[in-house]
Request: fold
Amino acid sequence: MTTKRTDTWASPLAGRYASEEMSRLFSERRKFETWRLLWLWLAEEERRLGLPIAEEAISRFDVARLAIEHRVGELALGDVSVAIAVAHEHRAPTFDARRYVIEELKKRVPIWKLELYADGTRDWVDPTRRVTEVAS
Reply:
């Protein structure tokens, strides 16, 4: 059984002209890690520059406290990727605030996903595409 290398640059020139270091530098894994760091930096800068989703939800729904946590890294099917905790003396505002936060996260924070399939293929999922686009 041969092991397929999935962490090397996929260019046809990589085998002929690229060194091992060059193949590593341009690997899918390196690209994923770099993009992940860039998106984390972007999210932090968006928050710092005035796109505070949590603060908006707190003032809009008059909730006492709100926390958002997004997991980074490899997740299995069914794993929780986003946790939103809201405190209010009534349930309805907490549900509304959570719904607002998750929808705003989807709109404002472009979180790319690398989906790995059982047949060995993989695909980057565009965070901006709509469900209707996927179905067609």
Observations:
- The first strand starts at residue 65 and ends at 70.
- Residues 28-48 form the longest helix (21 residues).
